[in-house]
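Q: How would the structure tokens look for this protein?
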Amino acid sequence: MIRSPFVMNKEVPVKRSLLSTSLLYGAALILTSAAGCAGKGELKQFDLHAKPASAASAGTEPVKIVIVPFEDRRADKARLGSRTHLGGGFTHFDVTSGRPADVIAQVLVNRLQSQGWGGRAWDVQLSRDGSAADADIVISGQVGEFSANAKSRWFSTVINTKNRLEIQAKNSADSSTTTRTIENARTRTVFWFDEEDVRELLADTLNDGLDRLIADTKIVEKALKPVR
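A: Here is the predicted structure in token form.
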């Protein structure tokens, strides 16, 4: 059977029309997605207090360690950082208490109480009033940097976290002092952004620093000493 030229001529503009409509809807979808990625200046807060892990052995070592509140020396104390949205604007990050130095000190307490030097539990307390008269070791710290920033791009978001801590231990046994400076950074690229990615990366970066502190020091005769 021979098809009519009239019928064939009608199919071409219909296909072109469908193609044009598909491209139009596709462009509209991309623009809508970009608009949905715009930041509104919201503040997202993270809880970094992970559940303490079980100690490798029962009981604690006969050494009393007191951690006093850390000092916040960050250049920008207003927040941890921000996410730059593809469609413009920002979402800001901070810890739930708004005091990162206190959070870091508490995380260190939790870590040493569950698993510190030698993979054992230690007698560690956080002294909020600064009282540590009967302690064998008094640990203080300064927070130079503790940040989390994210930048959204087409089809991905890059997350960067950093910390710089100076930890100082004063030993009562011999009146010595041990100081360690810790710097860590991590980067993660995600396709679908979720604030939990930022919280996890920030916690991992902090744990990296605490792992290094424990690896670089040891307890000798009730005093914290550097590993030679």
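The first strand starts at residue 43 and ends at 46.

The first helix runs from residue 5 to 36.

Upvote if useful.
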